[in-house]
């Protein structure tokens, strides 16, 4: 219901399938899709966002990373992903968020697994696949190395296993291109560093939304830190990984070539998880209400105008 209400402007401006030209292997796939009716695209968008939101929320509850069972993470994810018009389309960034959620779930399995090496390889493989499919996600590779450093005792061979996993998707791609006698195309699948970020013509609503979003994220991080002493050490480490993931993914829309605003969606996975604390453990109930309604109003305004 929340997703439908936040996306009421869809009835006037339906979502579209928007490939990110030159930003990874997902773009040619989206270009090749036949044109779909507006209703189908609208339903697909809601299904993708809700599946990601509930998967992220279920994972945090299953891992007991939250102090009580709640749907606040799913609520934050649906709310955050609706904030900008560029985020309200089916894009490679939106699809890549499923890989980021899966990647973090794999990271949490390192704490007690007897098969840590295979999990580390899978972490690298998922990260490499994400970068291959959508280039602005390349900072997730740094997150993988930091996560291994936080969650595991240092073992150099595990870092090499992670690196091999990251390179594996590119090895398979190279093999396919070799069979097709098209090795020169490999450069189309290598991430490029960015060009100057293109500012929107009207900055005021964008700045207002970014400020409101930043305040909610900072409030969520503060609430998490205030309750961190009650958490298990391993849980605190997992939250530290999420915080670093947020900090690493925010610059994605600035440092990757032609990334644009849609790349900011990548940071909403850890952002929704961290912000959920302000709605889960409020000291003053009026504060999360103000945060929610402010973001909801900005979402509707940004997508209606």
Automatic annotation (TrEMBL):
The organism of origin for this protein: Filimonas effusa
Transmembrane segments: 36-54, 90-107, 119-148, 160-179, 206-224, 239-256, 286-304
UniProt keyword annotation of Cell inner membrane present: no
Keyword Membrane among record annotations: yes
Name under which the protein is recorded: Glycosyltransferase RgtA/B/C/D-like domain-containing protein
Signal sequence range: none
Keywords: Membrane, Transmembrane, Transmembrane helix
